[in-house]
# Entry
Amino acid sequence: MAPYLRLRQICLVAPQLAPVVSDIAEIMGLAVCYRDGNVAKYGLENALLPVDTILLEVVAPFKDGTTAGRFIEKTGGRGGYMAIFCCDDPDERGRHANAMGVRTANVIDHAPYHGVQLHPRDCRAAFIEFNHTEGSDDILGAYPPAGPDWQKSIRKDVTQALVAVEMQSPDPQGLAAHWGKIIGVAPDGAELKLPNATFRFVKGASEIMSALEFRVTDVARVLHAAKAKGLAVAGNEFLLGGVTFRLAA
# Structure
């Protein structure tokens, strides 16, 4: 199998799913494809919404003592939780990360799906996960975390794509180099360019996943929908689910 790496999923964390999930769906014109009962064992509930072939997930803790709950407390609810990549060999990528001192936090083995999650403290800014679904290398193929028919929930009349992820750090070049080494993508300045999305690293007070950039059909229409939900809109962006949603035509 030829080596490959694509952004498969972004996970946000919120104190409660409502109204974050319904706000995302209504403002961005997206649909929930799945709510995964498997995350209950981590004290979480979730919802996933496809943005073309990238999944946007929101998780919320329903009991005390969860990793997600601690993340909210530590960050004050600001910043994305996970960047999840599909690849040919998650275990090999996990071993490569371990060799550079990045610990494995969790291994998920639900055949045909296999995922390796790396420790956020070592990754810096957010969790990194590598996963692979056996026999599913097509970008529209099976992806068990998103449910059996996730493809049927793709909506593209309002939001067409998730094109970029912004990461903040006091040392953006350093964080870009660190993430680049973990995921095996050489930085282009302070950017990591994947086949289906770009990670941009910018100056900021703390290390967080700070913004998601979406290509939409009508920026003004989406901003109007965000204002109607009571969100504070500034320029072409608004805050939702702990991150800045930035819009481009």
Remarks:
- DSSP finds six helices and 14 strands in the chain.
- Residues 220 and 237 are 11 Å apart (CA to CA).
